[in-house]
Amino acid sequence: MYIIKQIPEDFIVKELSKPKIEPGSYSYFKLKKTQWTTIAAIKQIAIRARMNTKFIGIAGNKDKEGITEQTISIFRTNKERIKDLKIKDIELEFLGTGKERINLGDSEGNEFVITIRNLDEELYETPKLLPDYFDDQRFGVNKQTHLIGKAIVKKDFQKAVELINDPEANEFLKRKKNDYVGAIRLIDKKMLRLYMHAYESYLWNLCVSKYLEKFDYYKIPYSLGELNVNKNALDNIEVPILGFLTEFKNKEIEKIYYEIMREEDLTLRDFVIRQIPELTTEGASRLLFFEVKNYKLISIDKDDLNHRKLKEVVSFRLPKGAYATLVIKCLFFSSQKA
């Protein structure tokens, strides 16, 4: 089996972002990090700079493993104060100022340079269009983020609090027993939204994988099971991400989703969270496929970390929201099936 992320240098990610530099209230910095998720890094920067995290804007959340670069915005701050912060495995480079905050989704995509290790032979180039599945990172190390999201959607707030196991929320419950909604409200809203998105992503994956069963496909593993990947080109349709306002344009997708909702004991109205309105989700959509651009095989060589194996270094660009780990899985497993 292949190995990625054996060392941080094996997984390099550069966010494609060009904020407009001009006089303004926002300072832009290049955040380079390793061994930190973006959210954890932002929290640490805020603590050290003695500010609220709400003043820091990001376009997306990057993994803990690997070396990642992305642009962040900070509202009304002293650039020297931020540049002088000394945080292990975090570098901050001032880029300039501007009038716009950086918000989720603002990036143009990401560029990757990935070393694939422990190979027996060269891999075939992956197809240019791949199913836009949410990969392992979406569901957390303990594979429970979607279960927390499901508990919130089903209004089982006790289960959600128990799964999250947040110290501040647990302490709150000692004082106000059974006030699980109050306990959840103490948890970072960004994290709560991530749990909700994880459940929606899990359902999207189920739907798309089921849809692709009717075509010629091969399977790839992921943290919550297996996913089907089509071998041949298909039309790139939009697939809903469920919410209370979801409307179905494709009858086959609608049928599959309603089968899944029956199995999950779920309705679209369940995505209205009256107890915590800010977690209510209207729904969205996601294209079935994403395009892999500028794919290059950089080198093939002996693997210096795995005896008698090969390592392959590849680079490519992906649109925002697409997972490079999924590309590597498809690259490896399509080669095995060829």
- The assigned structural class equals alpha+beta
Largest sheet: 8 strands, mixed
Low-confidence stretches: none
Terminal Cα separation, in Å? 16 Å
**How many DSSP-defined strands?**
14
Tell me the number of helical segments per DSSP (H or I, 4 or more residues long).
9
Morphology: globular
Write the element-wise H/E pattern from the N-terminal end onward: EEHEEHEEEHHHHHEEEHEEEEH
Strand content: 25-35%
Q: What is the arithmetic mean of pLDDT?
A: 94
When the domains are counted, the total is 3
Short description:
The protein has 338 residues and is α+β, with helices and mostly antiparallel strands.
SSE layout and pairings?
Layout (H helix, E strand, L loop, with lengths): L10 E5 L10 E8 L4 H12 L6 E3 L8 E9 L3 H5 L6 E9 L11 E10 L9 E3 L13 H9 L3 H8 L2 H9 L4 H6 L3 H23 L5 E6 L2 E6 L7 E4 L9 H14 L19 E4 L1 E3 L1 E10 L7 E9 L5 H14 L1
Parallel strand pairs: 1-4
Antiparallel strand pairs: 1-6, 2-4, 2-5, 3-4, 6-14, 7-12, 8-9, 10-11, 13-14
Helix pairs in contact: 3-4, 3-7, 7-8
Describe the protein:
With 338 residues, the chain is α+β, with helices and mostly antiparallel strands. The chain folds into 3 domains: 21-98, Alpha-Beta Plaits (2-Layer Sandwich); 110-128 and 292-337; 136-287, no CATH class. The chain has 9 helices and 14 strands. Strands 1, 2, 3, 4, 5, 6, 13 and 14 form an 8-stranded mixed sheet that branches. Strands 7-12 form a two-stranded antiparallel sheet. Strands 8-9 form a two-stranded antiparallel sheet. Helix 3 (145-153) packs antiparallel against helix 4 (157-164) and helix 3 (145-153) packs across helix 7 (189-211). The longest helix is centred in the middle third of the chain and has 23 residues, at 189-211. The protein starts with 10 loop residues before the first strand and ends with a helix. The mean pLDDT is 94.
